[in-house]
């Protein structure tokens, strides 16, 4: 195989503005099919970027032997069923975050992906963002980390928790404590026990992550989210929606890296890793290597988020090992930590 042929399932804002243009910029990727319940959206995309056909039936895309992989961006509730169907059809998968709302759905999706042996990529694009890579290089093993997100619980924690538990802290979560509750009454979070919280994650190596999730933006410099790492004598600050990385040692700012583009710069020279995540999937398919963001890691994020919400609702800290065992999810960490 020298080229990966994609089908697009869901032709909304992210595929239209980000994923399809990025696939068009990857030399060994091609989009052949566009699927959406609103056929006009699919047709507009094909007219702009080229392809073979549009359809309102996902089954047609999954049955098409010419399609190697699919992108799925249709809303969080539908992600598990569509990923499982794509895996059963033998299609490699890119799915937007989150993988699932419930841990049970996430675990069922892990099982489907691994049984099918397909390549899977999860839309936690910030893991591959340029400034995040710099932060990891400058402070690979922080003692403490902190982040603040001003958005909905439904869409935002997956990004920051992924960075905390799958990148910055190289040890399993052992304890989760969350406190908070309904304050902003955000529509996207109505079915959750909380739409805001302050949470503390404790890792097996003694390191700690603190996470504040709020429903509004109180600081213009914060924009949507920021992240800070602390070491023995240094700190790394990811500011302005990860467009800026500052390295401080001994209380003095030693160096700053900045991305000068706008919020919509999410292509080959963007700041959020959207292009890189699709390149990674294409290369993993062509070379038969693991992807950067695995399905188990995606489910691990879901597990931690569910543990935070359980702690918020109960007022009690959660022993995370026991939480995983009770949910038949301990296998998520197998082979990850020595």
Descriptive overview:
There is one protein chain. The chain has 338 residues and is an alpha/beta fold. It has two domains: 4-125 and 274-293, Rossmann fold; 127-262 and 303-323, Dihydrodipicolinate Reductase, domain 2 (2-Layer Sandwich), CATH 3.30.360. Helices cover 34% and strands 25% of the residues. α5 (103-116) packs antiparallel against α9. The radius of gyration is 20 Å and the shape is globular. The model has no long low-confidence stretch (mean pLDDT 95).
List key phrases describing it.
Dihydrodipicolinate Reductase, domain 2, 2 domains, Rossmann fold, alpha/beta, 338 residues, nine-stranded mixed beta sheet, 10 helices, 15 strands, six-stranded parallel beta sheet, globular
Could you provide a short overview of the structure?
By secondary structure, the protein is of the alpha/beta class. It is built from ten helices and 15 strands. It has two domains: 4-125 and 274-293, 3-Layer(aba) Sandwich (Rossmann fold), CATH 3.40.50; 127-262 and 303-323, Dihydrodipicolinate Reductase, domain 2, CATH 3.30.360.
């Amino acid at each position: 195989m020298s080229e990966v042929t994609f089908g697009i399932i869901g032709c909304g804002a992210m595929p239209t503005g980000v994923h399809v243009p990025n696939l068009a910029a990857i030399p060994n990727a091609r989009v052949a099919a566009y699927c959406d319940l609103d056929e006009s959206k699919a047709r507009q995309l094909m007219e702009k970027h080229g392809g073979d056909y549009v359809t309102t039936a996902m089954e047609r895309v999954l049955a098409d032997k010419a399609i190697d992989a699919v992108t799925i961006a249709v809303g969080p509730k539908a992600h598990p069923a569509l990923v499982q169907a794509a895996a059963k059809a033998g299609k490699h998968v890119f799915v937007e975050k989150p993988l699932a709302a419930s841990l049970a759905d996430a675990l069922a999706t892990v099982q489907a992906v691994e049984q099918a042996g397909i390549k899977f990529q999860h839309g936690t694009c910030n893991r591959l963002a340029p400034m995040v890579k710099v932060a990891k290089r400058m402070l690979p093993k922080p003692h403490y980390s902190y982040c603040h997100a001003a958005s909905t619980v439904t869409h935002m924690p997956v990004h920051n928790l992924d960075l905390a538990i799958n990148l910055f802290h190289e040890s399993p979560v052992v304890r989760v404590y969350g406190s908070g509750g309904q304050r902003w009454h955000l529509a996207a979070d109505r079915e959750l026990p909380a739409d805001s919280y302050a949470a503390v994650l404790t890792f097996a190596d003694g390191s700690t992550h603190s996470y504040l999730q709020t429903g509004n933006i109180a600081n213009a410099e914060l924009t949507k989210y920021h992240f800070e790492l602390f070491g023995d004598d240094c700190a790394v600050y990811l500011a302005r929606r990860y467009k800026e990385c500052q390295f401080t040692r001994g209380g003095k700012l030693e160096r700053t890296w900045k991305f000068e583009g706008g919020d919509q710069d999410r292509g080959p020279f963007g700041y959020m890793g959207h292009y890189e995540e699709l390149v990674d999937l294409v290369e993993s398919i062509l070379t038969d290597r693991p992807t950067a963001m695995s399905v188990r890691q995606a489910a691990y994020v879901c597990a931690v988020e569910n543990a935070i919400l359980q702690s918020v609702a109960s007022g009690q800290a959660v022993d995370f090992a026991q939480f995983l065992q009770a949910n038949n999810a301990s296998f998520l960490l197998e082979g990850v930590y020595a």
